[in-house]
Design goal:
Structural class: mainly alpha
Strand content: under 5%
Largest sheet: 2 strands, antiparallel
Strand order of the largest sheet: 1-2
């Protein structure tokens, strides 16, 4: 649980950290669209190359980003098994009952796994290079037009910021509770899947109690400081676009354009 990187901020002086949070959010949206638009490994290769460049510019250790993949290992394996054994199409290499393994199935499985890994690492890099406060300000600024229809933009941004802050806190709390349960003889690593699920139940109950207690304390602290939502609130820091932001936006548009070109000109290439 201590290896969870999503929601954690890595403080370092880099060009990516200095970019406007709105720019990083928009670039992430373009990046996600590019990853989903890729229909072959040429497109995914372009996304991976862009991600590598941004990672090098951010000065964030690559190990911290790869640790974010651990949280989706189960989903990754589950999706890979389903696509590998039940993908229909192509000449089967191995056939056993209703289960077939074909060359196309293997290709599709590897392709989906690479797409999922790129999505998770890209989202993790955003939180590693952006503080929760800046991320909240960026989301609120981008959603500002919705205020015209009386949508609670500030409250929504605040909820997302608090959720990001609570991810590492709850991860540490989970590790603390599990260590306390191990000291009392609990076993989380041996036995079948049913036994492991039963062993997790004593962890979930105190974790939920702790989460509700922290939420109640946070609400009391906000009330004690006379927090009133978005009414007549001012900003200590004003968000401003700079040359880095313009370059990042052009880079995101170029990435999406390259992926669409690869999709069009290499439609029949695997």
């Amino acid at each position: 649980m201590r290896d969870v990187t999503f929601g954690q901020y890595y403080p370092v002086d880099s060009p990516v950290h200095k970019c406007d949070p709105r720019t990083k959010i928009l670039f992430l949206i373009l990046y996600i669209v590019a990853v989903f638009s890729a229909k072959n490994f040429f497109g995914l290769g372009a996304c991976a190359f862009a991600f590598l460049i941004i990672t090098l510019c951010s000065s964030v250790p690559i190990g911290s980003i790869f640790r974010s993949v651990r949280g989706v290992v189960f989903l990754l394996l589950f999706t890979a098994i389903l696509n590998l054994f039940f993908y229909s199409g192509g000449e089967p290499l191995v056939k056993w009952g209703i289960i077939e393994i074909s060359k196309e199935g293997i290709y599709y499985t590897v392709f989906l796994a690479a797409r999922l890994i790129l999505l998770v690492m890209g989202s993790s890099l955003l939180t590693l290079t952006t503080t929760p406060v800046s991320l909240t300000d960026g989301i609120e600024s981008l959603l500002y037009p919705l205020k015209l229809v009386r949508f609670p933009v500030h409250e929504l941004a605040l909820i997302m910021s608090i959720a990001l802050r609570f991810i590492p806190i709850l991860s540490d709390e989970t590790a603390r509770i599990m260590n306390a349960q191990r000291a009392r003889g609990a076993d989380f690593e041996t036995g079948g899947i049913i036994k492991r699920v039963k062993a997790v139940v004593p962890v979930l109950i105190p974790l939920l109690i702790s989460a509700f207690r922290r939420a109640d304390e946070l609400g009391d602290a906000m009330d004690a400081r006379c927090y009133s939502g978005s009414k007549v609130r001012t900003k200590y820091k004003k968000l401003r676009f700079g040359w880095r932001d313009a370059f990042a936006c052009l880079f995101g548009v170029a990435l999406l354009t390259a992926v669409l070109l690869f999709r069009a000109y290499f439609a029949h290439v695997v």
